[in-house]
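Long-time lurker, finally posting.

We've been working with Ornithine carbamoyltransferase (Pseudoclavibacter terrae) and I want a structural starting point before designing mutants. I don't trust myself to interpret raw outputs, so I'm hoping someone here can both generate the structure tokens and explain anything notable. Sequence follows.
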Amino acid sequence: MIRHFLRDDDLTPAEQREVLELAAVLKRDRFSARPLEGPRSVAVIFDKTSTRTRVSFHVGISELGGSPLIISTASSQLGGKETASDTARVLERQVAAIVWRTYAQSGLEEMAHGALVPVVNALSDDFHPCQLLADLLTVNEHLGDPAGRTLVFLGDGESNMGHSYLLACATAGMHVRIAAPVGYQPRADVVADAERIAAETGGSVVVGDDIDALVAGADVVVTDTWVSMGREDEKQRRIDALSAYRVTEETMAEAAEGAIFLHCLPADRGYEVDAAVIDGPQSVIWDEAENRLHAQKALLVWLLAKAAA
Ligand code: CP
Ligand code: NVA
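Top reply, 14 upvotes:
Generated this for you. Predicted structure of Ornithine carbamoyltransferase:
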């Protein structure tokens, strides 16, 4: 059965746990799974720029025995001359999976509709689910099982990261808090989906603008750029609206003792986070960046096994 990973809640709580356990195994024994041996190819398509996603998928697909086919949209027919659906019809006869970083979530849905191979969201305007697998793996490494832990996200809550923290952390049974000003709070339908999942997993969801109350006692403090890709025209308005949400040493002092700091990167030091925090002792951003590799390898192994079943 073909399964896709377009949003964080495309994995059930049990499935998310399975993928994360596999990621830990693949981190310990890096070359133990080679389902792409042959080699089979995986297409990795970028409509937006990338460092971590590009490198981790390229290296990960190679380590699984496969051949990564990294495609920049500007040098392909996708976008301008050819639909996502027609592109999928061409690729699915030649590759084992399609990974796509794009703008509209609807493009990914179109790509996945009826596709004969798994389609993976490598970041859209709405979600960044591969990043959240890496983040949860990192939380597990530093704090143990994420279930029952509290994570607070400060900043642009209507971004792909804000939305993915809601869905993925609720799936993991975490208490997720989004601290964002009115106008930058997450989409109501995503909050509702996260609340529904949290009710099943024992987690909880809070969205608000009372920064002190939301940060108090959090085990994990996270933020993201205030100016996501595609939002560059709104830069000054966003800086003005979000400046109170910067993660500072004072913010970290309000969190739980032993709290960790995460950031998906790239970061704008002095804007969403102070250098003293992101480069400080509570920051685990380099583990988080490395874990993109292990988490995505596990995801691909899992999706390919489902496709072969
Ligand atoms: N975090 C992340 O997705 O980084 P890149 O934009 O460099 O891929
Ligand atoms: N929210 C950011 C994430 C970058 C990995 C963006 O979309 O640009």
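Before you design anything, note these points.
Strands lie at 41-46, 67-72, 97-101, 119-121, 150-154, 175-179, 204-208, 220-223, 260-263.
The longest helix spans residues 285-308.
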